[in-house]
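Ops channel
N.P.: pipeline sanity check, posting one input/output pair.
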C-alpha cells in the first residue's frame, strides 16, 4: 500500500483540524508479517503475526506518536521540543523536529543508549544532554524543564503521542480483517500498551469490532516494576529500550491488562535474546532486543499451553535491529579473516 502521512490516513479519528500543520515522514502503514512460528505454535495451529514497527521512518514505533506530537507543538507555536529517552523517542523527536524546523532537546541516561539511536539523534541535529542517572531521573528533569521553559514535552505523557500510537490497532484490524485473539508487546514506560488498548477500545465503541484482543505486556525481569508491584530503583536489562524502573503510564497499563483480560509478566534477558535470535535466524526479522520481549513472553505462554488452539496472536516488534549493533556484536562472533583465496574461502564456508 502507498504510504500516506498517518495523520491523513486516520484524520477523522485524530485530534487535528485543517489548521494543524502536518509534520510527517510517511510513518505507519507498516507490514503485518505472518510468521512461520516456533514448533510450539505450529503444533497447536496458532498463527503468529509480526507488526514490524522497525520499518517506520526512524525505525521504531515512536514515529506514530511523534508525527502528532510535533504537528500539535508547531500548531501551538512551540520553537522547541524536549524528551527524556532510552533512545528511540530521542531519534524520532530529533527527526520530526528537523522536519519541522524547530529545536529538539533530549535527555538520555549516559552509557545506556544503543549506538544507532545516538547516531540518529546526533545527525538529525538534536541537542543531547547525557545525565549520570537512569531514564526515570531523565524524565523527572524533562518534566520540570518543560514546566519552567517554553519547550513542548514530547514524551508519551503527552496525550498526542498516545493518540498517534493508537493507530497500530486500527492497522492490525484492517490487515487481519478483524481483531486478533492476543496482542503482545514489550512494556517500558507503558505508553505503548496504553495506546494499543485505547485504539482497540475505540474500535469497540465505534462498532468496528465486537471483541478486543487480550493484551499481553512483557517487561524485562531486571526492570519489571509493574510485575513486582513497586518501582525498581536500579533497573537492568540487555533490552536498554525498556530499562525503566517507574513507568509513567503504570496505572493505565494495569487498566489495559485488566479490561482486556490480559497479563503483564516478566521475561529474562536470556529469553529475550533467544527470541531475538529466533526472529532473525528463523523468520528473517532483525529487531532490537526490547522488541523480542513480545515473542519471549508469547513463547512462554505457548509452552505452558495458555494460548488456545487456533488463536491468532499479533506481536508488536517495536524497533529495528540496526538500532543496536552493540548487542549484535556482543552476541554474535565475527570470524577471523582468511587468505584471499578460493580454497580458503570454500573451506571457511564449509563447502569442502
Ligand atoms: N520497545 C522499544 C524499541 C522502545 O524504544 C520502547 C520505549 C518500548 C518498547 C516500550 O514502550 O515505553 O511505551 O512502554 N522506548 C522509550 C524511548 C522509553 O525513550 O525511546 P513504552
Amino acid at each position: 500500500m502507498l504510504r500516506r502521512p498517518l495523520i491523513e490516513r486516520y484524520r477523522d479519528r485524530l485530534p487535528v483540524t485543517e489548521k494543524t500543520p502536518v509534520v510527517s515522514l510517511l510513518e505507519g502503514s507498516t507490514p503485518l508479517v505472518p510468521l512461520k512460528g516456533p514448533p510450539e505454535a505450529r503444533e497447536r495451529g496458532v498463527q503468529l503475526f509480526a507488526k514490524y514497527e522497525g520499518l517506520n521512518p526512524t525505525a521504531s514505533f515512536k514515529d506514530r506518536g511523534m508525527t502528532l506530537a510535533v504537528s500539535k507543538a508547531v500548531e501551538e507555536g512551540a520553537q522547541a521540543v524536549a524528551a527524556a529517552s532510552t533512545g528511540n523517542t530521542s531519534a524520532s523527536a530529533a527527526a520530526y523536529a528537523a522536519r519541522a524546523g524547530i529545536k529538539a532537546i533530549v535527555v538520555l541516561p549516559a552509557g545506556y543508549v544503543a549506538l544507532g539511536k545516538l547516531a540518529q539523534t546526533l545527525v538529525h541535529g538534536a541537542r543531547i544532554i547525557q545525565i549520570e542517572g537512569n531514564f526515570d531521573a531523565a524524565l523527572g528533569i524533562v518534566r520540570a524543564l518543560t514546566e519552567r521553559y517554553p519547550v513542548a514535552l514530547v514524551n508519551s505523557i503527552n496525550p498526542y503521542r498516545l493518540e498517534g500510537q493508537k493507530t497500530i490497532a486500527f492497522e492490525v484490524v484492517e490487515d487481519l480483517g478483524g481483531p486478533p485473539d492476543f496482542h503482545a508487546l514489550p512494556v517500558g514506560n507503558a505508553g505503548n500498551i496504553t495506546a494499543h488498548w485505547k485504539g482497540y477500545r475505540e474500535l469497540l465503541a465505534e462498532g468496528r469490532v465486537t471483541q478486543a484482543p487480550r493484551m499481553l505486556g512483557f517487561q524485562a525481569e531486571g526492570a519489571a516494576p509493574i510485575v513486582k508491584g513497586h518501582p525498581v530503583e536500579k533497573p537492568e536489562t540487555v533490552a536498554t529500550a525498556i530499562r525503566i524502573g517507574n513507568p509513567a503510564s503504570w496505572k493505565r497499563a494495569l487498566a489495559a491488562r485488566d479490561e482486556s483480560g490480559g497479563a503483564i509478566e516478566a521475561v529474562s534477558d536470556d529469553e529475550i535474546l533467544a527470541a531475538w535470535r529466533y526472529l532473525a535466524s528463523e523468520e528473517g526479522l532483525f529487531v532490537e532486543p526490547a522488541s523480542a520481549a513480545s515473542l519471549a513472553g508469547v513463547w512462554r505462554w505457548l509452552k505452558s499451553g495458555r494460548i488456545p488452539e487456533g488463536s491468532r496472536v499479533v506481536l508488536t516488534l517495536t524497533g529495528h535491529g540496526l538500532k543496536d549493533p552493540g548487542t549484535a556484536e556482543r552476541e554474535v562472533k565475527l570470524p577471523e579473516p582468511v587468505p584471499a583465496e578460493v580454497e580458503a574461502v570454500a573451506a571457511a564456508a564449509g563447502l569442502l
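N.P.: looks fine end to end. The two ends are 45 Å apart (CA to CA).
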